Amino acid sequence: MGHVARPRSLSRSRREREFQPERFLNPQTRDPMRFAFGFGRRICPGRHFADNSLFIIVAHVLHTLSIEPPLDRDGQPVQLEFRYTTDMVVS
Fold it and tell me: Residue ranges of region Disordered (predicted)?
């Protein structure tokens, strides 16, 4: 039986659910790579492969796809409603 643990260090911010990219520019912010793949003797041997694969996938998507909001009948962009869910796929 397995489990997933969420480190308490991720929930230090009072506004953790808000989009704040500047919070990652703080030099005191811990690097997720330091604890996401384990440490010491039990560190994940595929951590570099996983990190590089994710980078290539995101770069490929950003390069080849046009990510834009949908258009209404008049051709104007539709204002999107952002919400947090626990689902893996949101339709």
Answer: 1-25
